[in-house]
Amino acid sequence: MDLSKSKKGTAAVWGGEGDLNTKGAVTSPIVNSVAFSYHDLDEWHHVATGKANGFIYSRNTNPTVAVLEEKIRILENAEAATAFATGMAAISNTLFTFLTAGKRVVSIKDTYGGTSKIFLDFLPHYDVGVTLCDTSDHDQLEEEIAKGCDLVYLETPTNPTLKVVDVQRLSEAAKKVNAIVVVDNTFATPINQNPLQLGADLVIHSATKFLCGHSDAMGGLIAGNKPLLQKIFNFREINGASLQADPAYMIARGMKTLELRIERQNTSALKIAEYLKGHAKVKHVFYPGLETHNGHDIAKKQMRGFGGIISFALDGNYDMVKKFLTALKLVHLAASLGSVSSLAGPPHTTSHVELTEEQRKQLGIPESLIRYSVGIENADDLLQDLEEALAKL
Question: Would you call 216 a catalytic residue per the annotation?
Answer without folding.
Answer: no
